Structures are given as C-alpha cells and as structure tokens.
Amino acid sequence: MNRREMLLTAGAGAVALLWPRPSLAQDAKGFTLPKLPYDYDALEPVIDKMTMTIHHTKHHQAYIDNLNKAIAGNADLQGKSIEELIANARSINPMTLRTAVINNGGGHLNHTFFWEIMAPKGQGGEPSAELAKAIEAYGGMQKLKDDVLAAALGRFGSGWAWVVVGANGALEVVSTANQDNPITATQNRPGRKPILGIDVWEHAYYLKYQNRRADYVKAWWNVANWKAISENYAKAKG
Ligand SMILES: [Fe+2]
Question: What tens digit of pLDDT does each residue of 173-215 get?
C-alpha cells in the first residue's frame, strides 16, 4: 500500500464508522429501496406528490438496481454497507466499476439520506442546542441558508448542496456534482461528514418549480427535519 492509498483508507474509514445507517445494509440480494418515512404527499406544498413518487420509486429504485447489477459477482464489494463502498470508492478498480459505484451507490446513499432529513412542514422541529451553537459559529442561520443557496445555484448541471462537518470540526457548505457524496475521500482530502444535503437535480424539483432552482431551495427549509439533521451532527462530531 503506498502513501496515497494509506491516506485514502485512513480518511475514508474514519468517516464510514461515523455515519451508520441501518437502512443502508446490504443483504444477499444486494441493496433494496428503503420505505419513505412519510407519505408521498406529506411534503406538499413544498415538494409535490408526483415529484416524490417518481423520485422515490423510479429514480432511487434505478440507482439501486444499477448498483446491484454493477457489484453482482464482485466478492470484494458484496456485503459492504453503502457508506463503506462510497467512502472508499476511489480505491475501487477497474474504473468502470468505480464509476458505476460512485454514480449509482452515491445515488442510493444520497437519496436515502435526503428522505431522512425531511419532514412534513411544521414537524421538523428546531436544531439541537449543539447544532444551533455550530450554526452560530458559522455565522448564523441566514448565512448558512444563503451559502447553501449559492452552492446550489453554483452547481452547473446536476448535483447536491451540502452542509458538512469538516476536518476542523466546524460546519462547511459545499456542493458536489452528479451523485458524488462528501464522504468520498479524494487524493488530496479525507472524506467529510454531511449532516444536510439538498438534491438539486432537475428531477427533484422540475415538475413544480420548472427552471426556478432558487425557489425550490429557499422553500426546502420548510421541510427540513432538524431532529434528523441534529442527530447527523451529533454522529459526525462523535
Ligand atoms: Fe434525486
């Protein structure tokens, strides 16, 4: 193992352990679509029923089907949790398999995470005292929302806007392309731990908001599940 591989392994492993999701376990048949924690129309009027239905049953399902196909017959990848696969994705070979895992495994991980950090309007609660303190240290809730919006609008094409806990333990706002997830370690940087992520692919908002990504992202905060986001923060801080 060379130095780069050691760095990747160390950085990614630390992240994977800090972000356990029982719903993301892999069984003998591979990964399966988790149930939504609410009805398809529960996030109305912020996210419409048709969008939620297609997003969950078609888009998320397709990522899972394609991930299962990609890893079928690969003993090294079978049995691993989706976080392990994605955190260490850069060390998967050959490149075609790596790309398939990053795209489809990332799609599975990101969407499962996304469903869990939303709640019907008015039921999302408030940030925990610890998270509220971290948001204050960041510059306040409005700055956080402004920066998430800027990250969402700055992402050309498809991707995600995230709030993560960075290496120094403070909150950071980042965006990723396609289905990349911040827990994936890169050559120059260990993985980061997301606590909130907004899907800014057009499939997440186009039926209701058409080209108005900004309106969707601004409205999204009405369905933020602060209880789940606070739990993510507590886990990320360890
Ligand atoms: Fe999506």
Answer: 999 999 999 998 777 777 889 999 999 999 999 999 999 999 9
Calculate how far, in angstroms, residue 187's C-alpha sits from the geometric centre of ligand 1: 27
For ligand 1, the distance from its centroid to the CA atom of residue 202, given in whole angstroms, is: 8
- Kindly give the distance from the C-alpha atom of residue 221 to the centroid of ligand 1, in angstroms, as a whole number: 17
Of residues 46 and 237, more confidence is placed in 46
Residue 102: band (very low, low, confident or very high) from pLDDT cuts 50, 70, 90: very high
Domain ranges (residues) in the chain: 1-20+48-238
Rounded distance from Cα 195 to ligand 1 centre (Å): 17
Architecture of domain 1-20+48-238: 3-Layer(bab) Sandwich (3.55)
Q: What is the mean pLDDT of residues 99-124?
A: 95
DSSP letters spanning 147-189: HHHHHHHHS-SSEEEEEEE-TTSSEEEEEEETT--TTS--SS-
Give the whole-angstrom CA distance, residue 230 versus residue 233.
5
Tens digit of each residue's pLDDT (9 = 90 or more) over 161-180: 999 998 888 999 999 999 99
Cα(203) to ligand 1 centroid in Å equals 6
Q: How far apart are CA 216 and CA 38, in angstroms?
A: 20
